[in-house]
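thread: overnight batch results

M.L. [08:02]
morning all. the overnight job finished for the chain we discussed friday. pasting input first so we're all looking at the same thing
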Amino acid sequence: MNVMFDLDGTLIDSAADIRATVNAVLADEGLESFDLDTVRGFIGRGVPYLMDQVLRARGIDDPARSERMAANMLSRYEDAVELTRLYPNVLQTLDILRQDGHRMAVCTNKPTGAARAVLRHLGLDGYFVSVTGGDSGLPRKPYPAMLLHTRRKLGEGAAIYIGDSEVDAAAAEAANLPFLMFTEGYAHIPFDRLRYRALFSDFAELPELIRAAA
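M.L. [08:03]
and the structure it wrote out:
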């Protein structure tokens, strides 16, 4: 089985680092900072979208300023790793999946360099055949192109996607892939409004769910 993972809100809880980076950019602009819950509500669709939402929340509609702030955030993003944590049982589960012979990849709207940096920092980079980020040149999730690209890089065989949000659920549906939804991430709408093969709240549950989907 080819197993593809989202990153932020799925394998890692990175909201604190994202908030710190967003607030550093806001400080550069002379704007007031945001609390963690507010920033968590902006996560999931990539840096340009995040910065659009940040400015709109401050009552500002300025595409050029948003673009400048996104570039500022991207310049800081690869160093934004110190506050990020693995969700419980992620490392043990990746070991089991590798032992079971699954090929694994990451497909995330986070920029590729930032994704690889945090995977290295947390000791996860050796588990994944490929990392497809939001700066790949393909339309970001919820469009299916990034998932389909990642699946091709993994090679032949059945595939499954694991994520945490409505963005991931929509991308999996559009790519015609079975979807397993982690409930402890950054979803912004109720789970009963989404399509998925199964829900799980602990990564210890994941190997058996993947075996059942094979």
